[in-house]
Write a structure and sequence with these properties.
about 100 residues; alpha+beta; 2 domains
Length: about 100
């Protein structure tokens, strides 16, 4: 019975030492990420010349979502109401779930 208490005490002491050494030697602080400035997406809108090339009304507000290598508009969205702007530009490339 006394041997069992010694073995259990030794195992608990070993676990305590391992846990404490883990917290002491591995620093998981976020110091490296404090100076990183998050990238803010600024929406881009079509110019009058681009609207004319697509035969769109000049007074409409149209957000450019993608351009090709030549700088020409390939994907755009007509903004009908305030708040219709796309703010997650990466969502354009994600596949759409057909159930929704």
């Amino acid at each position: 019975m006394n041997k069992n208490k010694i073995i259990i005490g030794a195992i608990l002491a070993l676990l305590l030492i391992v846990t404490l050494s883990f917290f002491i030697f591995f620093d998981y602080s976020n110091e490296d990420y404090r100076d990183v400035v998050p990238e803010v997406y600024e929406p881009e809108y079509m110019t009058l010349e681009e609207k004319a090339s697509f035969s769109l009304p000049e007074d409409s507000k149209i957000q450019v979502l993608k351009r090709n290598d030549g700088g020409n508009v390939t994907v755009y969205k007509i903004i009908r109401e305030e708040g219709d702007e796309v703010i997650d530009i990466e969502a354009i490339d994600r596949p759409v779930d057909p159930r929704y």
